Amino acid sequence: MIPALALYGIQKRFGATQILRGVDLAIEPGERHALIGPNGAGKSTLFNLIAGGARPNAGRIDLFGAEITRLAPAAITRRGLARSFQTTSVFARLSVFDNLRCAAMLAERDRTRWWQRFSGSSTVDARAGQVLEAVGLSARRRTQAGTLSYAEQRALDLGLALAGGAHTLLLDEPTAGMNRAEAARAIELIRTATAGRTLLMVEHDMDAVFAIADRISVLVQGRIIATGTPAAIRADAAVRAAYLGDGFRA
Ligand SMILES: Nc1ncnc2c1ncn2[C@@H]1O[C@H](COP(=O)(O)OP(=O)(O)O)[C@@H](O)[C@H]1O
Ligand SMILES: [Mg+2]
After folding, report:
1. For residue 146, what is the DSSP state?
2. Ligand 1 centroid from CA 25, angstroms
3. For residues 80 and 63, is the Cβ–Cβ distance under 8 A?
4. Domains of the chain with CATH codes
5. 43 Cα to the center of ligand 2, angstroms
6. Which atom of ligand 1 lies closest to the CA of 14?
7. Which of 2, 19, 43, 148 sees the fewest Cβ atoms within 10 Å?
8. What's the DSSP call for residue 10?
9. What region holds the ABC transporter domain (predicted)?
10. Residues lining ligand 1, CB < 6 A?
């Protein structure tokens, strides 16, 4: 099977410092994959490379078998990979529903030919409505996005990625800044709203990781030291040893 996302020998240096030392990873379509590891291991750097925010010094990144290594972020987004849970993509003065419509409209524009675009907005509205429900914001449909709570804005941001048609999602610490109850709700929302799509997420809350991940990879000092099911990772001696005395929050 062609992986949804495949990394081959990814290396990244900042100046003389080697941050990623040859990362290989293959994520199956529809898989929920968690990337864990100590602070400073290179997790966010790896996400940035995948999303096109920077280029690796060596290695290749494929999305459904097509190389994306040197594409610009917008081109990678158009191919269906979205980096989410960054509130910056929300239009603060538009309603929640109109934010979702904008995302759906942009996706539609990329998919259709110009003479088909004026045939009405029913697909766009239908898609926005579906996503509104999926991310649990039906009661906030007419609310100005900028006035939502922090957790709600993050839910909307996930909704924007979904409305935009992303089939592969990168979530970097989606529950950061949330209390335990909000975090648990956010994880449940991510699990249900992204069903059927491919998910790669960095998360420190191990309860959340075990609740959502099909497989887990452990990044330590720029290398993946283990990949496996939650049960296998929990039992892995090397993983346990790597965390002794470092800043990992388990
Ligand atoms: N743009 C950059 N320039 C220089 N060093 C960086 C840059 N981005 C990240 N780093 C360094 O790379 C290392 C890995 O950072 P990061 O990928 O954010 O780790 P993680 O997300 O796993 O906590 C850290 O030591 C960090 O200081
Ligand atoms: Mg990080």
Report:
1. G
2. 20
3. yes
4. 1-77+205-250 (3.40.50.300)
5. 5
6. 4
7. 2
8. E
9. 5-246
10. 14, 19, 37, 39-45
| CA separation for the pair 164, 182 (Å, rounded) | 25
**How far apart are the two ends of the chain, measured CA to CA in Å?**
33
Pairwise CA distance, residues 173 & 42, whole Å:
13
State how far the Cα of 218 lies from the Cα of 73, in Å rounded to an integer.
Answer: 26
Q: Six-digit token pair at 172?
A: 């970097």
What confidence tier does 110 reach under pLDDT thresholds 50, 70, 90?
low
Neighbours of 229 (CB within 10 A): 12
Q: How far is the CA of 21 from the centre of ligand 1 (A)?
A: 13
- Closest Cα to atom 2 of ligand 1: 14
- Tokens representing residue 8 in the block: 């081959």
Which residues are registered as beta bridge partners of 171? 84, 201
Ligand in closest contact with the CA of 248: 1
Tell me the CA–centroid distance for residue 247 and ligand 2, in Å: 13
How far apart are alpha carbons 71 and 90 in whole angstroms?
Answer: 24
Q: What is the pLDDT of residues 173-214, one digit of tens each?
A: 999 888 889 899 999 999 999 999 999 999 988 888 988 999
